[in-house]
Amino acid sequence: MKKERMKFLFQGVLLLILGLLFMTDPIRQSAILLMSIGIVLTLSGIGIIVDGLIMTKVMKYKILRVLEGLLVSGIGFVFFLRNPASGAFFVISFVVVTLMMVAVTNTVAIYKSDNPIKWVAIALNILVIWFGVQSLLDPQLAVVIFYWTVSFQLIFTGVNHIMMYFLIKDMTVIPKPKKV
Hints:
Elements: H1 2-23, H2 30-55, H3 59-81, H4 88-110, H5 118-137, H6 139-144, H7 146-167
Helix pairs in contact: 1-2, 1-7, 2-3, 3-4, 4-5, 4-7, 5-7
């Protein structure tokens, strides 16, 4: 359980830093920033896949971790290999849908907690989903506000992961019934 908590803390800090970096002068530094984010996300996704295959014990969580790792690595490849002049909507849609999926899975995971702070994490996830839906419904607006939308989604997801680090210890595991 401690390893799971540390993973959430590491991912949260990383996502929070990426979100803040994304906000700093995105137009001028976009190529370098996107390449750096691509490398970090690709390596992070590979780490998540390895973690899912080796360290995660329960099969449904193992599958979920591998899928999350594939999505994060996919985002990293798209950022790293992206031509800034073309494919902006594809990149935006891919990033937005992935962050929305992470928000949904985090909401499902945190909902079981008895800690009242879970509602803050759920509210942040709802904001991530709301930003995503707005970006998908208006592609032209999404291209214009791409950096800001993704920045806020990364920041909210990062804060959510950091909160999960503190909340996951409060989550209770229902013991298996003993055979009589």
